[in-house]
Specification:
Number of helices: 8
Order of helices and strands: EEEEEEHHHHHHHH
Oligomer: single chain
Distance between the termini: 33 Å
Largest sheet: 2 strands, antiparallel
Shape: globular
Strand order of the largest sheet: 1-2
Strand content: 5-15%
Structural class: alpha+beta
Protein backbone atom coordinates (compact mmCIF):
# COMPACT_ATOMS: atom_id res chain seq x y z
CA UNK A 1 0.00 0.00 0.00
CA UNK A 2 1.32 3.42 -0.98
CA UNK A 3 0.95 6.47 1.24
CA UNK A 4 1.08 9.91 -0.36
CA UNK A 5 0.19 13.54 0.19
CA UNK A 6 -1.35 15.76 -2.49
CA UNK A 7 0.14 19.11 -3.45
CA UNK A 8 -0.48 21.66 -6.19
CA UNK A 9 2.21 22.28 -8.80
CA UNK A 10 2.79 23.83 -12.22
CA UNK A 11 3.97 22.13 -15.39
CA UNK A 12 7.36 23.67 -16.32
CA UNK A 13 6.60 23.26 -20.04
CA UNK A 14 3.07 24.61 -20.57
CA UNK A 15 2.39 26.24 -17.16
CA UNK A 16 -0.78 24.22 -16.57
CA UNK A 17 -1.75 23.54 -12.97
CA UNK A 18 -1.96 19.95 -11.72
CA UNK A 19 -2.18 18.01 -8.49
CA UNK A 20 1.01 16.14 -7.53
CA UNK A 21 1.67 13.33 -5.06
CA UNK A 22 4.36 13.36 -2.39
CA UNK A 23 4.93 9.63 -1.91
CA UNK A 24 5.39 8.79 1.75
CA UNK A 25 6.22 5.09 1.65
CA UNK A 26 4.89 1.55 1.40
CA UNK A 27 5.31 -1.99 2.70
CA UNK A 28 7.74 -4.30 0.90
CA UNK A 29 7.16 -8.01 0.33
CA UNK A 30 9.36 -10.28 -1.81
CA UNK A 31 11.93 -9.32 -4.43
CA UNK A 32 12.53 -10.43 -8.01
CA UNK A 33 15.93 -11.31 -9.41
CA UNK A 34 16.09 -7.97 -11.30
CA UNK A 35 15.70 -6.15 -7.95
CA UNK A 36 12.00 -5.25 -8.25
CA UNK A 37 10.57 -5.28 -4.72
CA UNK A 38 6.90 -6.25 -4.59
CA UNK A 39 4.42 -4.48 -2.32
CA UNK A 40 0.87 -4.95 -1.10
CA UNK A 41 -1.71 -3.10 -3.17
CA UNK A 42 -0.64 -0.26 -5.45
CA UNK A 43 3.11 -0.21 -5.93
CA UNK A 44 5.09 2.92 -5.14
CA UNK A 45 6.53 3.13 -8.66
CA UNK A 46 2.98 3.34 -10.02
CA UNK A 47 2.43 6.55 -8.04
CA UNK A 48 5.77 8.31 -8.48
CA UNK A 49 5.37 9.55 -12.06
CA UNK A 50 3.23 12.62 -12.72
CA UNK A 51 1.84 13.61 -16.10
CA UNK A 52 0.64 17.00 -17.26
CA UNK A 53 -2.83 16.54 -18.73
CA UNK A 54 -2.21 19.31 -21.27
CA UNK A 55 1.22 18.68 -22.84
CA UNK A 56 2.01 15.18 -21.46
CA UNK A 57 5.28 16.29 -19.85
CA UNK A 58 5.98 13.55 -17.30
CA UNK A 59 8.41 12.89 -14.48
CA UNK A 60 8.97 12.59 -10.77
CA UNK A 61 7.70 15.30 -8.45
CA UNK A 62 11.12 17.01 -8.49
CA UNK A 63 10.96 17.20 -12.29
CA UNK A 64 8.04 19.60 -11.98
CA UNK A 65 10.04 21.96 -9.79
CA UNK A 66 12.52 23.09 -12.42
CA UNK A 67 12.86 26.48 -14.09
CA UNK A 68 12.47 26.62 -17.86
CA UNK A 69 12.25 29.47 -20.33
CA UNK A 70 9.23 29.95 -22.63
CA UNK A 71 11.43 28.87 -25.54
CA UNK A 72 12.14 25.50 -23.89
CA UNK A 73 8.44 24.97 -23.28
CA UNK A 74 7.61 25.83 -26.88
CA UNK A 75 10.21 23.36 -28.17
CA UNK A 76 8.82 20.63 -25.91
CA UNK A 77 5.25 21.17 -27.16
CA UNK A 78 6.46 21.24 -30.76
CA UNK A 79 9.02 18.40 -30.75
CA UNK A 80 8.08 16.05 -27.89
CA UNK A 81 4.36 16.25 -27.10
CA UNK A 82 3.26 14.90 -30.52
CA UNK A 83 5.45 11.81 -29.95
CA UNK A 84 3.96 10.97 -26.55
CA UNK A 85 1.26 8.49 -27.47
CA UNK A 86 -0.32 5.56 -25.67
CA UNK A 87 -3.32 7.07 -23.89
CA UNK A 88 -6.83 5.97 -24.97
CA UNK A 89 -7.87 7.28 -28.38
CA UNK A 90 -9.57 10.67 -28.53
CA UNK A 91 -8.48 11.40 -24.95
CA UNK A 92 -5.32 13.48 -24.70
CA UNK A 93 -6.12 14.20 -21.03
CA UNK A 94 -6.42 10.54 -19.95
CA UNK A 95 -3.54 9.13 -17.93
CA UNK A 96 -1.97 6.13 -19.73
CA UNK A 97 -0.89 2.83 -18.24
CA UNK A 98 2.02 3.17 -15.77
CA UNK A 99 4.62 1.76 -18.16
CA UNK A 100 3.67 4.36 -20.79
CA UNK A 101 3.92 7.09 -18.16
CA UNK A 102 7.52 6.02 -17.59
CA UNK A 103 8.15 6.11 -21.35
CA UNK A 104 6.77 9.66 -21.41
CA UNK A 105 8.98 10.52 -18.43
CA UNK A 106 11.93 9.00 -20.31
CA UNK A 107 11.22 11.15 -23.38
CA UNK A 108 10.81 14.22 -21.17
CA UNK A 109 14.08 13.49 -19.35
CA UNK A 110 15.90 12.90 -22.62
CA UNK A 111 14.65 16.26 -23.89
CA UNK A 112 16.10 17.87 -20.76
CA UNK A 113 19.47 16.16 -21.25
CA UNK A 114 19.33 13.91 -18.17
CA UNK A 115 22.28 11.47 -17.71
CA UNK A 116 22.19 7.95 -19.14
CA UNK A 117 21.82 6.30 -15.74
CA UNK A 118 18.64 8.26 -15.01
CA UNK A 119 17.25 7.40 -18.45
CA UNK A 120 18.01 3.72 -17.95
CA UNK A 121 16.29 3.75 -14.56
CA UNK A 122 13.10 5.17 -16.08
CA UNK A 123 13.00 2.42 -18.71
CA UNK A 124 13.72 -0.22 -16.06
CA UNK A 125 10.66 0.95 -14.15
CA UNK A 126 8.60 0.84 -17.34
CA UNK A 127 9.66 -2.81 -17.63
CA UNK A 128 8.80 -3.47 -13.99
CA UNK A 129 5.33 -1.96 -14.42
CA UNK A 130 4.42 -4.70 -16.90
CA UNK A 131 4.62 -7.25 -14.06
CA UNK A 132 2.58 -5.34 -11.49
CA UNK A 133 -1.15 -5.62 -10.74
CA UNK A 134 -3.74 -4.68 -11.69
CA UNK A 135 -3.59 -6.87 -14.77
CA UNK A 136 -3.72 -4.71 -17.90
CA UNK A 137 -5.56 -5.34 -21.14
CA UNK A 138 -2.28 -6.03 -22.94
CA UNK A 139 -2.02 -9.22 -24.94
CA UNK A 140 0.92 -11.50 -24.22
CA UNK A 141 2.45 -10.56 -27.56
CA UNK A 142 2.16 -6.81 -26.86
CA UNK A 143 3.53 -7.26 -23.33
CA UNK A 144 6.54 -9.20 -24.62
CA UNK A 145 7.14 -6.58 -27.32
CA UNK A 146 7.19 -3.79 -24.75
CA UNK A 147 9.45 -5.77 -22.39
CA UNK A 148 11.96 -6.32 -25.18
CA UNK A 149 11.93 -2.63 -26.10
CA UNK A 150 12.34 -1.41 -22.53
CA UNK A 151 15.08 -3.91 -21.69
CA UNK A 152 17.11 -3.18 -24.83
CA UNK A 153 16.96 0.59 -24.40
CA UNK A 154 17.63 0.44 -20.65
CA UNK A 155 20.71 -1.72 -21.25
CA UNK A 156 22.00 0.72 -23.87
CA UNK A 157 21.76 3.60 -21.40
CA UNK A 158 23.28 1.59 -18.55
CA UNK A 159 26.19 0.64 -20.79
CA UNK A 160 26.76 4.32 -21.57
CA UNK A 161 26.74 5.12 -17.85
CA UNK A 162 29.36 2.53 -16.84
CA UNK A 163 32.30 4.88 -17.32
CA UNK A 164 32.99 6.48 -13.97
CA UNK A 165 30.16 4.64 -12.20
CA UNK A 166 31.38 3.18 -8.91
CA UNK A 167 28.23 1.27 -8.00
CA UNK A 168 29.08 -2.46 -8.44
CA UNK A 169 25.41 -3.43 -8.35
CA UNK A 170 24.90 -1.93 -11.80
CA UNK A 171 26.90 -4.88 -13.17
CA UNK A 172 24.57 -7.30 -11.41
CA UNK A 173 21.51 -5.51 -12.77
CA UNK A 174 22.91 -5.41 -16.30
CA UNK A 175 23.72 -9.10 -16.07
CA UNK A 176 20.19 -10.03 -15.08
CA UNK A 177 18.55 -7.71 -17.60
CA UNK A 178 20.80 -9.12 -20.34
CA UNK A 179 19.88 -12.67 -19.32
CA UNK A 180 16.16 -11.86 -19.41
CA UNK A 181 16.67 -10.20 -22.79
CA UNK A 182 18.26 -13.35 -24.21
CA UNK A 183 21.82 -11.98 -24.46
CA UNK A 184 23.40 -14.74 -22.38
CA UNK A 185 27.03 -14.02 -23.28
CA UNK A 186 26.74 -10.42 -22.07
CA UNK A 187 24.89 -11.63 -18.97
CA UNK A 188 27.74 -13.97 -18.02
CA UNK A 189 30.30 -11.19 -18.58
CA UNK A 190 28.43 -8.70 -16.39
CA UNK A 191 27.86 -11.24 -13.62
CA UNK A 192 31.58 -12.06 -13.59
CA UNK A 193 32.44 -8.37 -13.37
CA UNK A 194 30.05 -8.02 -10.45
CA UNK A 195 31.62 -10.99 -8.64
CA UNK A 196 35.09 -9.43 -8.92
CA UNK A 197 33.97 -6.14 -7.33
CA UNK A 198 34.27 -5.13 -3.71
CA UNK A 199 31.46 -3.76 -1.55
CA UNK A 200 28.91 -6.20 -2.91
CA UNK A 201 26.00 -7.83 -1.09
CA UNK A 202 26.29 -11.51 -0.15
CA UNK A 203 22.83 -12.60 -1.29
CA UNK A 204 23.38 -10.85 -4.64
CA UNK A 205 26.73 -12.60 -5.04
CA UNK A 206 24.94 -15.93 -4.58
CA UNK A 207 22.19 -14.79 -6.98
CA UNK A 208 24.78 -13.69 -9.57
CA UNK A 209 26.45 -17.10 -9.42
CA UNK A 210 23.14 -18.91 -9.90
CA UNK A 211 21.94 -16.59 -12.66
CA UNK A 212 25.25 -16.87 -14.49
CA UNK A 213 24.84 -20.64 -14.48
CA UNK A 214 21.31 -20.27 -15.87
CA UNK A 215 22.62 -17.96 -18.59
CA UNK A 216 25.14 -20.61 -19.60
CA UNK A 217 22.22 -23.02 -19.98
CA UNK A 218 20.32 -20.53 -22.13
CA UNK A 219 17.55 -19.70 -19.65
CA UNK A 220 15.85 -16.31 -19.95
CA UNK A 221 12.79 -16.76 -17.73
CA UNK A 222 11.79 -14.05 -15.24
CA UNK A 223 12.42 -15.26 -11.68
CA UNK A 224 11.74 -14.18 -8.13
CA UNK A 225 14.52 -14.44 -5.58
CA UNK A 226 12.48 -17.15 -3.87
CA UNK A 227 12.44 -19.23 -7.05
CA UNK A 228 16.12 -18.56 -7.69
CA UNK A 229 17.20 -19.65 -4.22
CA UNK A 230 15.09 -22.81 -4.30
CA UNK A 231 17.29 -25.92 -4.02
CA UNK A 232 14.94 -28.06 -6.08
CA UNK A 233 17.28 -28.78 -8.98
CA UNK A 234 14.60 -30.87 -10.70
CA UNK A 235 12.47 -27.76 -11.07
CA UNK A 236 14.70 -25.79 -13.45
CA UNK A 237 13.11 -22.73 -15.06
CA UNK A 238 11.93 -23.27 -18.60
CA UNK A 239 12.49 -20.99 -21.56
Amino acid sequence: MVVWFSKEMTCPMCRSRLCGREVGGGFALEQDSDLLVHMEGKHVIQAEIHTCQTCRYSGYLKDFHINTTPDVGERFLRDVTPRLTGAPKNSISSTPLPDIQYVWAYESAKFLGRPSLALGNLLLRAYWCLRLPPVTHLTEAESEKRKKTYLSKALDHYHQSLRGNRNPHLYYLMGELSRRNGDHESAITYFQKYLTRRNTVEYLRIAATKLSALAREGHSKELSMKELFSDHKTNRPQQ
